[in-house]
What does this fold into?
Amino acid sequence: MTSNLYATQLAKILTEYSAPVKKGDLVIISGSTIAEPLIEALYEATVKCGGHPHLSLGLPNNAEIFYTYAQDHQLDYYGPMAMAEVQNVNVYYSVRAAVNTKRLSRIDAEKLARSQKAGRPGLDVWQEREKAGDLIWCIAPWPTQAAAQDAEMGLQAYENFVFGACGLFEADPIAYWTSFRDKQLRLTEWLKGKKHAHVKGPGIDMTFEFEGRTWVSCHGERNFPDGEIFTSPIEDSVNGHVEFSFPTVYGGRELNGVKLTFKDGIVVDACAAKNEDYLISQLNADEGAKKLGEFAIGTNMYIQEFTREILFDEKIGGTIHMALGLGLFEAGGVNQSVVHWDMVHGMRQDAEILIDGEVLYRNGAFVI
It folds into this structure.
C-alpha cells in the first residue's frame, strides 16, 4: 500500500533525523491503534537502530470514558507507572491520529484543568530531563478520516497534504529538511542580540521585548512536519491587542473570534465568539496562563490550508502564532503554567514585523 511506503519513509526521518535513536535507548511510541502503519514502522525502525521499543497504545474512547466518570481523587492522580516512563524514557514519539477530534467537547472544562494540574510533577521531571539532554521527543501525524473531515478534505486529498507537508514527495526528504534547517538557522543568527519586536497588521498591534532571549529554529526535530522560528517574550513586556484570524482548537473545543488584550504581560481582556467560557476557564487555570509563553513565525510553505490540527496550522507559511501559558525554556522563557495554547493569525496582507525598528518580515515573507 502507498500509505505503508510513506509510513516507512516517515519513520526513517523520525528515527534518523528528528529524534535519532541510539543503541540501548528506551523508546516509547505512543498513539492510537488507528495509526498502525506508522506505529509499526517506528517499531521496526527503532529495533534496526538498536533501541528498545515500548508501545503505549490508546483506544478511541479511553479519554472520553475517563473524563465522563472520573471522581475527584482520580482526576488528581498521577500514577507511578506514568512517572516511571517520564523518568526513564530516552526517546518519545507521539503519533497524532484522531478517530474523533471532538470526543472531549462535552467534558466539563474544570475536569480537564484539574487533570492537567495533576500531571504537573511529570511535566517538571520531563522538562528537567529534556534540559539535561537525557530525553528527546517528536510529535508526528498520521492521516485519518476524522482529521480529513476537520480539514474539509477527502481522505486521499488529506493524505497528499500531510505527506507533502512532511516533505515526503521530495527526492531526498532528509536532505530537504537539512537544507530547511540551514536556511532557518540563518534567520535565528540574524536575530541574535536584538531586543524589541513590533507586530502590526489587520487585527493586531503588539509589542514585546526579548533581550537576552533566544530565537529557536524548528526544523523537524520535535514537531514533524515543522516550520517555525520562535522565542519566549520577556514575560512583563507584552502590550497590545490581537484578534486571531484563524479558529483555534484546544482540549477538543473549537473557538472562533478570540480577542486578547495584554498590558504589561498580562491578559487584561479576553473574549471569543464561540466557547468563550472555555477560554476564560483556561486563562484561570493558574497564575501563568494569562501570560504569553511563545511568539512564533510559521515558515512551512507546503502548508497553506487551515486544518484544525495545530501541528500543521501553527506552521502555515505566512502566519504567526502565539501561545498562552508555559514559556519555552529553549528560548529562555520562565513562565510556568499547565496551559500552552497556540493561536494562529494571518500576516499575508498589510502586515509587518519590525525588530529594533528594522523590517524583518512583510506580508508573509522574510525581507532581510
Q: What stands out?
A: Residues 198 and 354 are 5 Å apart (CA to CA).
